[in-house]
Write a structure and sequence with these properties.
The complex is a heterodimer of chains A (165) and B (461). Chain A is an alpha+beta fold. Chain A has a domain of 105 residues. Chain A has four helices and four strands, in the order E-E-E-E-H-H-H-H. In chain A, strand 2 and strand 3 form a beta hairpin. In chain A, helix 1 crosses helix 2 and helix 1 crosses helix 3. The radius of gyration of chain A is 18 Å and the shape is globular. Chain B is an alpha+beta fold and 461 residues long. Chain B has four domains: 102 residues, no CATH class; 95 residues; 116 residues, OB fold (Dihydrolipoamide Acetyltransferase, E2P) (Beta Barrel), CATH 2.40.50; 89 residues, OB fold (Dihydrolipoamide Acetyltransferase, E2P), CATH 2.40.50. In chain B, 40% of the residues lie in helices and 24% in strands. In chain B, strands 7, 8, 9, 10, 11, 12 and 13 form a seven-stranded mixed β-sheet that branches. In chain B, strands 5-3-2-1-4-6 form a six-stranded mixed β-sheet, with helices on both faces. In chain B, a hairpin with a 2-residue loop joins strand 9 and strand 10. The longest helix of chain B is centred in the N-terminal third of the chain and has 30 residues. The radius of gyration of chain B is 23 Å and the shape is globular. The chains are: A alpha+beta (165), B alpha+beta (461). The interface between A and B is large, with 60 and 92 residues. Chain A: It comes from Lentzea pudingi.
Chain lengths: 165, 461
């Protein structure tokens, strides 16, 4: 067994990297998709729920009130573009590309975007939007969960790391 | 400290770890239809436990699991066996550390807590963990892993169940990022076996209950240790406690933890935790604190309540480490917490030579090298690997993982312009005053503000 395989504190996930949250408060690689929420530039109450599926690059974008995004007809809208850009900031281009199954060396946000649009992906129905939005609300709820001063020994398994991936 | 004792192998550990590896191999392939190799691994685990009070139950569980017929109670027995074996490794390592540091443990061993009826939430967690064990690490997929989300969401608001929630949340995130398991090139088998078995035992009702007493006296901080996964963080302050009526000083710990969104990182974590542990401000200011009737567990964990503490006189951690730490007693670990990964023993080191070989830094004591784990030093703080490499004295936590003792630096003394200066990993915990720290605080405040605004606007609709 390698040291990594036999280490209780083996690092599996690199920590998220800092980014500004104003435009894209939420982005994640989950459920086989790059998905997240983009704040509307014009209406403070409105957010766009956007996603791209790994492998097929099937995409969807709609508002939290379930109205289709006008920009996402035929190809990726600006919200999806912003989502890819912010995902690359948060997770690193390599991890985003690997998750979406975008091949190629020296990937960056722009190349991930153009590889995916180049395959002329089809538009998904808005079925995923409700799930993505509820994951966003779940994510926001973490802001308000109570802290505790009782020790959590299990967190000893989760040391910080200085490694930037 | 006798560094030579940290370099010498500890007898018996390799044999125990081989038995654990057998069980971990079974968990890798899954317990749905175990192959002969997996069955042999389970038998090895049971054999290692044969002479213990758990022996008969583990043997039965291994037999059922090898036949692909393990129920939840059998999985609980296998998890308990795995944790008991690590308990023996823990005890051997702690004994070796006592020999190396010359410090002794005070206090009787802690009895096993728990009993009673498991609530539905715990049963739901157990059911998911059982499904996970049947699929094995190589069998995980998005459907299976996402089953943890509703359980975690229901556990998190309940501080009483926070230990289970924190480990399940962090574990599930790693599994989700590793799907599908069939495509994994390498698997962190020891780690996932640890997390799985701990989570499973934490579904036993009352298992985290700890009797408390109270203490009054002076608290002298040594340093801050930080833990984090994407959606939780914990700061633990290591300190020496001097009882008011005299008596031996005691090593203690004060903790604060909170769930967090994954975009709260770096200085944002200190901002999140700071308001709930007044001790963090005392650490940044270099002060002691005076405690009156503060609750404490038998493991030496202070259960911090601000009303039982007030700021005391200035206290230099390096003076505490040089003068008071050598005489401080340690506390025993609760049965569930007897695991090598939880060993973190404060030590004071000086008179070493630092040696950098590639990425590995070592402190060398009269030719005996001890590895230094600078990767654990939080990025949101002034202590850097470079400062550690240039240091002449160090307050650290002695840890052990993957067969090796390592020192995690909490603070070092280095020389700058011919003067000795101290640099603390947790200097920003209570608030940053240097330029880099202030900048990091500003960025973190902006991120938290956005999330709170979005939560306020969207969450309660």
């Amino acid at each position: 067994m390698s040291d990594w395989e036999s280490a209780s504190t083996a690092r599996v996930l690199p920590p998220a990297r800092p980014r500004k949250l104003a435009k894209v408060p939420f982005v994640e690689l989950a459920d086989g998709r790059l998905q997240g929420v983009v704040s509307s530039g014009s209406d403070i109450e409105r957010v766009y729920v956007s996603s791209v599926a790994a492998g097929s690059y099937e995409f969807a974008c709609s508002t939290n009130n379930n109205r289709p995004c006008g920009g996402a007809r035929g190809s990726f809208c600006n919200h999806i573009h912003a989502l890819i850009t912010e995902a690359v900031l948060q997770y690193g281009a390599e991890r985003v590309a690997r998750y979406l199954r975008v091949e190629g060396a020296d990937v960056d946000a722009q190349s991930i975007h153009s590889v995916m649009t180049g395959t002329r992906p089809s538009q998904a129905d808005s079925a995923a939007a409700a799930q993505v939005f509820s994951r966003f609300l779940r994510h926001l709820a973490y802001v308000e969960l109570p802290p505790t001063t009782a020790p959590v020994p299990e967190l000893q398994w989760f040391p910080p790391t200085r490694a930037v991936v | 400290m006798r560094a030579d004792l940290l370099v010498d192998p500890v007898d018996g550990i390799d044999e125990v770890l081989a038995a654990v590896a057998g069980a971990d191999q079974a968990l890798t392939a899954g317990l749905l239809r175990p192959q002969p190799a997996q069955a042999a691994g389970l038998v090895a685990l049971a054999d290692a436990m044969a002479a213990s009070p758990l022996g008969a139950r583990v043997a039965e569980a291994a037999e059922k699991a090898a036949a692909g017929a393990a129920g939840e109670e059998h999985l609980l027995s296998l998890a308990a066996a795995r944790i008991a074996l690590f308990g023996s490794v823990h005890d051997a390592l702690v004994e070796r550390i006592e020999q190396a540091t010359g410090r002794v443990q005070a206090g009787a061993s802690i009895p096993v807590a728990g009993g009673g009826q498991a609530e539905n939430l715990l049963l739901a967690a157990r059911s998911w963990l059982a499904d996970l064990a049947r699929a094995g690490w190589q069998g995980i997929d998005h459907d299976l892993v996402s089953g943890a989300a509703p359980v975690v969401s229901a556990l998190l608001p309940e501080p009483r169940l926070r230990r289970l929630a924190a480990v399940l949340d962090g574990f599930a995130a790693e599994l989700a990022a590793s799907c599908p398991g069939s495509a994994l090139e390498r698997i962190p088998v020891r780690r996932w076996g640890d997390l799985w078995s701990r989570a499973l035992l934490l579904t036993l009702p009352g298992v985290t209950e700890a009797p408390t007493s109270t203490v009054t006296g002076r608290l002298l901080p040594l340093g801050v240790d930080l833990h984090e996964h994407a959606t939780a963080a914990q700061a633990q302050v290591y300190a020496v406690f001097e009882p008011a009526g005299g008596g031996a000083p005691r090593l203690v710990r004060a903790s604060v933890s909170a769930p967090k969104p994954d975009t709260i990182i770096g200085a944002g974590i200190w901002q999140l935790l700071r308001p709930h542990l007044s001790l963090l401000a005392a650490v940044s200011e270099g002060r002691s604190m005076d405690l009156t009737g503060m609750p404490i567990t038998a493991e030496g964990d202070l259960l911090w309540q601000a009303e039982h503490a007030k700021p005391g006189a200035p206290a230099d951690p390096f003076v505490t480490a040089r003068v008071v730490l050598p005489a401080a007693t340690t506390s025993p670990a609760a049965p569930l917490d007897r695991h090598p990964a939880r060993i973190a023993v404060p030590v004071f080191l000086e008179g070493y030579l630092t040696e950098q070989t590639g990425e590995t830094l070592t402190f060398s004591f009269a030719g005996q090298p001890v590895a230094v784990d600078t990767d654990r030093v939080p990025a949101a703080g002034p202590l850097t690997p470079e400062a550690v490499a240039a240091s002449s004295a160090c307050i650290g936590l002695l840890r052990w993982d993957s067969g090796t003792f390592r020192v995690q630096p909490l603070a070092v003394e280095t020389t700058a312009r011919k003067k000795t200066v101290a640099v603390h990993a947790g200097a920003w915990a209570g608030g940053a005053s240097d330029k880099a720290g202030v900048k990091a605080e500003k960025a973190a405040t902006d991120a938290a503000t956005v999330l709170r605004e979005r939560a306020g606007r969207l969450l309660r609709k």
